[in-house]
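# nightly structure sweep
# worker-07 picked up a monomer target from the shared queue
# config: single-sequence mode, recycle default, output format = structure tokens
# input follows
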Amino acid sequence: MTGEVTRLRIWATKPASPVSVRLWELGLDVVPIEEDEGDVDRYVLGPQLAVERRTARTFLLGIQDKTLFTSAIYLREHFEIPVVVVEGAINYAASGFHPQAIRGALSSMMLEYGLSVVSTPDAEETASLLAMMARHAQVGIPEISLVPKRKAVNLPDLERRVVEMLPSCGRVAARDLLQHFGSVECIVRATVHELQQVRGIGAARAAEIHRVLHADYDAVDTEQNLEDAIQVAPSLLFDHPVDLLARQHLFITAAVERNIVDLAYWDPQNAALVLVELKRGGLTSEHETQLRRYLATAQESPLFSNYLQAGARLRGILATVSRCTYTPESTDIQAVIVDEAAVIAVLKELRNQRQPHVGGL
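# output follows
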């Protein structure tokens, strides 16, 4: 199997701005947005998330000419998570604005219009923040451990903390393992028999430590994992050959709604255009409503309209690896439970292609 995993993508109204250029440098794809809404510096990071960037100067101008508030209305109406970034320090003395007027505008953005307001010192930090938000929106927010973590005081302390995460290894066992083997790497390379030579490490405990250190990582953590696998192995969804047309395809409707289709395929056997929406958890009616909106407005995508005008059928697939019993109401939408083990196998193959030199220790 071959195929490049798609990078994170951000849609921008100003693809040549300093922030957009920096996003390119950080390895993100920046896709231009063409829309007639005035001189706005806006970034769409996902179907529900958009950020409008305002420098200190344009923030003050937005208060003066009211565009700050019209933009707030637009963001609130079109995105579930609207954000305004105010970049740079506001010089109250030179602005000609009373500080209370500026504070009032900031408060209004949050309380009256429901926007989140974030301050950054410069374009570099704005770009870094947008990159992180895009990763969370498109890949997912890492699970947060509820186990409190103390700060390591030095390198040996940090090494002990790493080893303490192994099965049944507290501070004493971690210290003994490091003293016996000399490094975390040597512990990883140790055999079950060698682990048993350490005081307090019995056969069962040694076997469990070795298993954790050497077992393949078998998990589908995010929707992007599922998307990566299906992109290179469409047989996970289809029982006959299909052609991938687009991944994370954005099109803007006449009602100025942004639709982002996870995967789009041409099915030549059935002369059908297939739009795929992927979910990590169980399928719901809300997911079906989302996909039905994509199907209802597909003709407004230049890519899709070419196929539809040529007489292609249009259908949708809701797919997940989680077991569920949801049955779509729409006859043109199919719910598919993708074999998780098969997805994991594809992810392993992609992993091996990226790191062909990595093998068993």
